[in-house]
Design goal:
alpha/beta; Quinone Oxidoreductase, Chain A, domain 1; Rossmann fold; 2 domains; seven-stranded mixed sheet; six-stranded parallel sheet; 10 helices; 26% helix; 27% strand; globular; oxidoreductase activity; ADH-like_N; zinc
């Protein structure tokens, strides 16, 4: 059995392990099908996340099949599931308010506890959710990152004819643009990389621009998904009076005129991950029903043995979602 670890910053290691232990209690053993490489996976590899632990098994965007279960597990063997990679205690003051996404005791798979980039792994069935048969594996592996977008866009009521700008067309930015278009909004996607703009334009009727091409325009909703100082500062300038600014990106800091937000009564929303299972269920619904081919956000699927090439492409800035396949027969 193969498992992919970040041994230390800038060092990936594909390990051959013995069989995984049997699940106990409410646990299930999952045979992994696909695992998506996320920006936080790259951050762990590059040593940019101060809360990361090493060595750590990578991976948190996961779809697989239950192959063994504990006596109290919620789901049966053979159930195809996606995984919630962020734990919550259910007892702290924030969890008691329903804010499980910012639980004070949260741990994150692939960052400060072992993730799921392994042919098999064991996890509490509390953190898995079945996916319907008509949702392909290629769409199912997008449920976790798409739930981030679903949660973020729920902060503002996006309606037909509204003008929406998405600043930054990484994977979440591209999916945010497509979902806003699905809601009927007039969407403008903004990025410095023309390859990203071509990808998002191929998924929906979306206007695409370089940042410098925006001049004098304002939007009802602006979604900042680049995570840079420049993107945040531009996003503030683009929000129309009475509008909404949704911050998904993780910029460390930015400088902007607070008086502009105050005088124009702009609502600023910070948004982090999702509420489980609600945002997952909504993400699955959209993935099943949207006419837009959102799976085109996946640039390439590599067998896990080609992990170095996969991470290199994911880090290049010239790809959408890069996925590792753990299907039988694809390892060396």
């Amino acid at each position: 059995m193969l498992a992919l670890y970040v041994a230390k910053p800038n060092e990936l290691e594909l390990r051959r392990l013995d069989a995984v232990r049997s699940p106990e209690g409410d646990e299930v053993k999952i045979k992994l099908v696909y695992g998506g490489i996320c920006g936080s996976d790259l951050g762990v590899l590059k040593g940019k996340l101060p809360h990361a632990n090493y060595p750590v098994r990578a991976g948190h965007e996961l779809v697989g099949v239950i192959v063994e279960k504990g006596e109290q597990a919620a789901y049966d063997i053979g159930t195809r599931v996606v995984v919630l990679p962020n734990t919550y205690c259910g007892a702290c003051d924030l969890c008691q308010k329903g804010l499980t996404n910012i639980c004070r005791h949260k741990q994150s798979l692939g960052i400060n506890t072992d993730g799921g980039f392994s042919h098999e792994f064991v996890i509490s069935s509390k953190y898995v959710l079945p996916v319907p048969d008509d949702l392909s594996d290629e769409k199912a592996v997008l449920v976790e990152p798409f739930a981030v977008v679903v949660h973020a866009l729920s902060k503002a009521r996006i309606e037909p004819t509204m003008r929406v700008a998405v600043i930054g067309c990484g994977n979440e930015g591209m999916m945010a643009a497509v979902l806003a278009r699905h809601f009927g909004a007039d969407v403008t996607a903004v990025d410095v990389n023309p390859l990203k703009l071509e990808t998002v334009k191929a998924m929906a009727d979306i206007r695409t621009l370089a940042p410098a091409a925006l001049s004098g325009e304002t939007f009802d909703v602006v979604i900042e998904a680049a995570g840079t100082r420049e993107a945040v500062e531009q996003a503030v300038e683009l929000v129309a009076p009475g509008g909404h600014l949704i911050l998904i990106g993780l910029a460390n800091e930015a400088t902007f005129p607070v008086v502009r937000l105050v005088r124009n009564e702009v609502t600023v929303h910070g948004s982090i991950i999702y509420r489980f299972p609600d945002d997952y269920l909504q993400a699955i619904h959209y993935l099943r029903t949207m006419p837009h081919p959102i799976e085109r956000v996946i640039s390439r699927i590599f067998p896990v043995c080609d992990y170095e090439q996969a991470y290199e492409l994911a880090s290049s800035g010239n790809a959408g979602k890069v996925v590792l396949s753990f299907r039988e027969g694809e390892e060396q």
